[in-house]
Hints:
By secondary structure, the chain is α/β, with parallel strands linked by helices. It is built from 5 helices and 7 strands. The mean pLDDT is 94. The strands form 2 sheets. Strands 2-1-5-6-7 form a 5-stranded mixed beta sheet, with helices on both faces. Strands 3-4 form a two-stranded antiparallel sheet. It has helices spanning 6-18, 53-56, 71-81, 99-108, 123-131; strands at 29-34, 37-43, 60-61, 64-65, 90-95, 112-117, 134-137.
Amino acid sequence: MERVSWEKYFMNIAKEVATRSTCDRKHIGAVITRDKTILSTGYNGSIRGLPHCDEAGHEMVDGHCVRTTHAEANAIAQAAKNGVRVDEAEIFITASPCYTCFKLIANSGIKTIYYDEFYRDERILKHAKEAGIKLVHLD
């Protein structure tokens, strides 16, 4: 049996992390790594301690559920909460980040974004190039 690449390995883990998602509109998982080591994970769900979408329903604004904190934001928040530096790291996400999460990723110092499916926002393509952030689509 052939071993999977590191990229596929971490994306497989992101897909498993996504199974914890509590917003049934889209299950997303994120894994932040550096030097082939997992630093943090996150999935989309509500504010810690508050009811999730699958319990309380969705809070919809302009076609988006705003009750949910996105997987990328939760992974970065978890790292911050635990004092883990993500500067110069990579993030593996089951879907490309929304524009807001892309800005959070960029400002946190993450240098490479791997994603499985492209999700909605073309602005990240232009701004990733301008900011020197690698965007890598994994099939």
